[in-house]
Amino acid sequence: MTGNGRSDLPPAAAGFDAVVVGAGFAGLYMLHRLRRLGLSARVFDKAAGVGGTWYWNRYPGARCDIESLAYSYSFDPDLEREWNWTERYPAQPEILRYLNHVADRFDLRRDIALSTTVRGATFDEAADRWRVETDPGGEVTARFLILATGCLSDAQIPAIPGLDTFAGDRYHTAHWPHEGVDFTGTRVAVIGTGSSGIQSIPVIAAEAAHTYVLQRTPNFSLPANNAPLDPAVLRATQENYADLRRRIRQSPLYFPVEYDDRSALAVPEEEFRARIEDHWERGGLGIIGNYADQLLSEAAAERVATVVREKIRAKIDDPAIAERLIPTSYPFGAKRLCIDTGYYETFNRPDVTLVDLRETPITAIVPEGIATTGGTIEVEAIVFATGFDAMTGAILRIPIAGRGGLTIQEKWAGGPVTYLGLAVGGFPNLFTITGPGSPSVFSNMVPSIEQHVDWIADCLTYLAEHDLATIEAEESAEKTWTDQVHALGEMTIFPKGNSWYMGRNIEGKPDGLMPFAGGTVLYRQICDGVAAGGYQGFTLS
Ligand code: NA7
Question: Global pTM?
Fold first, then answer.
């Protein structure tokens, strides 16, 4: 098969040891580990290429906000040593090149069926096998079904009345045309000021004739201070990657942070300010795991926010625009922090207009543009930077039926219920990589993915060594785990923000913090303990 084509599909009713859904960071590494266990596997992805998130999100300015040296696989020392990242924060094309390199380097493509959608999966209790329906391809069966479907992969365009009447071009940041878009001479509206909006708006504004930014909730954003990666730093890291990996593993966020175990409220003003200013100057997300109680206490978060607000204010010429751009309605960090390159400065351009949807909400999309209570914004293009049905969307899009025909949609009707974010009771031999209930989006995703894949691979080895056919989460264990995830959430500031972490960006979605907020180090210890204890909380048969 070719790099971008579809592999030869397996014959109907072909049987594999494992089917993996998704060919991003998680699916690729899972396939590699399955191969090394001597298991047969088939990966399905509806995209025409590998890369997952980094295949789809090609919008202008798309960039990872974890540093490249940390946002990379650790499983292969030669790969680490030989791959030369070029920037502090990797841009989307570079990450996609990296993932394509990994697919080629480990000869993964021959087991990946691209442009293939998984239409459904049913557990056949008589055979202890999953029947997986793919399009094209028909049915395959597998002992194990591994969902590597990503936390942010179900892109959402809000159901605004008149959407289809728009006469111009419309785009979603996560479905960006591969050939790019030339906005020269065009009036463009961007709806949404999350990470995707904040990254793309400065690039779009530099090209378009006029850019309207439609903001519903302002976000806190810190400067990325992106730059070419210093070759000396790259070389030193490559020569001693183990040191960086060790620091990553010791961090509750899976990227190196300078953690201060005091309360943010206990630090003298001068020292406190100097530290926040230092974070601001250096840029990046490190500020999030700064003080012990920063994500636990609104007062602590507010103290950080006060300094950050001043920094934001200083970047914007018009004080009235500055006040609209500065978040005040939720604690610092309760919505996903962004990092940017020239975002706030963009609002100093004469050809950029901020539309505050709290003052003038959208009423409809019309042929000429976007109607608001303050008038119609006439544009030739609309960019939806409106995010995703996060954490559960990509899983719930697949009809999955477990024991007794119970569907995952029924099981999760009141919100996701999982054991460790890895398994679901009633769904034997099904694993969710970085599923809800695991740290996932509260961490650097790549090490979290590796931890899950390694745990699953070890589990499959255990099953083989003990001649066991199935593993299934016990309902009592998953209830206890899910209750703990919620209880931890209640101890944090996250319920104070209307974020996708809470499911609040999607109308009708059950409310509740979905990621595990106890940090990756504790989480890894728990997972390792469960395995060491012979898979406590699971029924093995
Ligand atoms: P996000 O962070 O979910 O941001 C979506 C943005 O779109 C956010 O500003 C929303 O405002 C806005 N939005 C969503 N629906 C509407 C409607 N109907 N009207 C107006 N504005 C709307 O998605 P991103 O793609 O930016 O980032 C996702 C993650 O990817 C990011 O956190 C990183 O982890 C990488 P709201 O805040 O809901 O008021």
Answer: 0.97
